[in-house]
Amino acid sequence: MAEKQYEPTPTVIADDIHITYKVQSGGSTREVHAVKGVTFVAHKGEAIGLIGSNGSGKSTLLKAVAGLLPPARGHIYTQGQPSLLGVNAALMNDLTGERNVVLGGLAMGMTRRQLRERYQQIVDFSGVDDKGDFITLPMRTYSSGMAARLRFSIAAAKSHDVLMIDEALATGDAAFQRRSNARIAELRAEAGTVFLVSHNNRTVTETCDRALWLEAGTLRMDGPAKDVVAAYEAHTKPKK
Ligand SMILES: Nc1ncnc2c1ncn2[C@@H]1O[C@H](COP(=O)(O)OP(=O)(O)OP(=O)(O)O)[C@@H](O)[C@H]1O
């Protein structure tokens, strides 16, 4: 008997979205059209890489999916509350890592009880304490890699309907990248959708099954991560 085929469940639908920034410059207002008519559907269980050159609109698109920027035109539908984990996520530099774990967890909707239960797991996962008692020091004493690891660990402690990661992995070392790849795989298994913005093509092919390639605000290609990365690499390779 043929196995029953399940329809994939959409988690994010972006329908012809346009996003503009208004910039005040020398008394006049200029408009930057950062995303120009992007359409895609993301499904439960997918990990989707967003690639493209600097300024192509990747972060802007993620912010729009997270509901932080309203589209000027078009519509975004999401199932559940998307969480954006960026390298600039709102952790406080003057507070200790410890306090940031608590505040970051609460900001993501974890209860105090969940936080108590998962606190040590978050700290251990981040590896921030591996080289001494750094978790009790202010975050400004952390290297950029340590801070990024703590941010990822806080966000990854919770199952998300839609988790968006902006370059958080690129700064981790090899051991941390292995741990975070494994955690992303678990998050996917918990039936969420993961978006990852990265300039590291290998990270994208290793962690994502699908990729969107943005260029100058438009979607150049959407398909299996290895195909999209190969096309992007062919495009960015210096011409002889
Ligand atoms: N706050 C802002 N105000 C005005 N313009 C902005 C703002 N943020 C981004 N832009 C512009 O929007 C466009 C897309 O930027 P975005 O940060 O989304 O690109 P990106 O693909 O994430 O780039 P990168 O790879 O460099 O991080 C760029 O032209 C950028 O100058």
In brief, what are we looking at here?
The protein has 240 residues and is of the alpha/beta class. Helices cover 34% and strands 30% of the residues.
Folded structure, characterized:
The termini are far apart. Helix content is 34%, strand content 30%. The chain has a single domain (45-70, 81-212, 223-236), classed as Rossmann fold (3-Layer(aba) Sandwich). It contains seven helices and nine strands. The chain has helices at residues 58-65, 97-107, 112-126, 144-156, 174-189, 201-207, 225-236; strands spanning 10-25, 28-43, 47-51, 73-78, 82-86, 162-166, 193-197, 210-215, 218-224. The longest helix is centred in the C-terminal third of the chain and has 16 residues, at 174-189. α2 crosses α3 (112-126), α3 (112-126) crosses α4 (144-156) and α4 packs parallel to α5. It has 240 residues and is an alpha/beta fold. Strands 5-6-7-3-8-9 form a six-stranded mixed sheet, with helices on both faces. It comes from Streptomyces flavidovirens. This is ABC transporter ATP-binding protein. GO terms for molecular function: ATP binding. Residues 12-238 form the ABC transporter domain.
